[in-house]
Amino acid sequence: MSVEEVSQKVQEVQINDGATKTTVLSDQSNFEVKHPLNTKWTLWYTKPAIDKSESWSDLLRPVTSFQTVEEFWAIVQNIPEPHGLPLKSDYHVFRNDIRPEWEDEANAKGGKWSYQVRIKSADINELWLRTLLAVIGETIDEDDSQINGVVLNVRKGGYKFALWTKSEDKEPLCNIGARFKQVLKIGDDEKIEFFPHSDANGKHHQPTITL
Amino acid sequence: EESGADDSTVGTMSQLLERLKTADPIEDVYSFEYPENVERPDPKYKSIKRKYTYGPTFLLQFKDKVRAKPDEEWVQQSISKIVITPAMMKLGKPR
Questions:
Q1: Which candidate in A78, A180, A184 is best for mutational testing of the B interface (most B CBs within 10 A)?
Q2: A182 touches chain B (CB under 8 A)
Q3: What integer pLDDT is reported at residue B4 of this predicted model?
Q4: What is the pTM of this model?
Q5: Structural domain boundaries in chain B
Q6: What does CATH list as the number for B7-79?
Q7: Is A31's CB within 8 Å of B53's CB?
Q8: B61 close to B42: Cβ distance less than 8 angstroms
Q9: Which residue of A has its CA nearest to B20?
Q10: What ipTM was estimated for this complex?
C-alpha cells in the first residue's frame, strides 16, 4: 500500500467514525434520517350529520396519511384533540388504504375490541395519544400484525375507543386486549369486549370475548 | 445554525414533508447511535417479524422536536376535511 493509499484509508475510517447521521431529535431543520413506520397509516374523520340528506359516505373522509414518526407528530399537533371534537364525530386511524368500515375486505373476517370511557375526569386526549402511540409504534400488536386500525367515537354517553383487528383468533386477540387495557389504564374491575364484525348486523350483537 | 423551539424558526408542514422525502430511512433503530441526551429505544420491543417498532417513551421524545406550521397548501389537502362548525359544538359534550 502506498503512502497515499494509507492516508486515504485513514481518512475513510475517520469519516465513517463520525458518520452518525442526525435525526430530528438533534436538528429539527437539517436532519438526515427519518423514522419509518412499518406501514402507511391514514387518518379519517367522520363529520357529524347536520341534515338527514347527508349519507355516511358524505361524512366519512380520509384526512391525511403518514408513514414516519416525524409526520405523525407534526400532524397530531396540528389537528383538534379529542376534547375539541363535536358530538357524533369520529377519528379513525387505519393501516394503508383499509377503509374504517366492516365491509372492507381486510376487516370482513375480523372484529373490534371496544371500550367506553365512563370516568368523568379521564383525560381523553392523553388516552387517545397513548392508544395511537401503541398502535403506530406497534407495541400493542402481535407479530403477525392483527391490528387494522383504531377508532374514537365521540358520543353523548361518552368517548368510545375501538381497536379493529383482521381476525377473530382468540389467542392473539387476548394478548392485544390485555395490552389495550393497560394503554387505556383500565383496572381489573372493568371489562373490555370483543365484537366480531360478522355479527355487526345481528339483532343481538353480543361480545364473543370479554376481558 | 441552532434551531430552537421558538416559533420563528419553525417551518411549514409542506417544508417538513419535502425534507422527509430526501431523508434516509433509519435501518435499525435499536443499533442507531443517538446522542447521549436521547433515551434509546427499549430493546424489549424488538420484534422478529416487524422491522420498525417504537416504545411510547421513545416516541414521546419527538413531541417537541417535530413542530410545523400548517400552510395553506397542506391545510387544503388535509385538515380542511376535519369540518367542525360552531353549530356542531353547540350540541354539547359527552357525559
A1: A78
A2: no
A3: 45
A4: 0.90
A5: 7-79
A6: 1.20.970.30
A7: no
A8: no
A9: A34
A10: 0.91
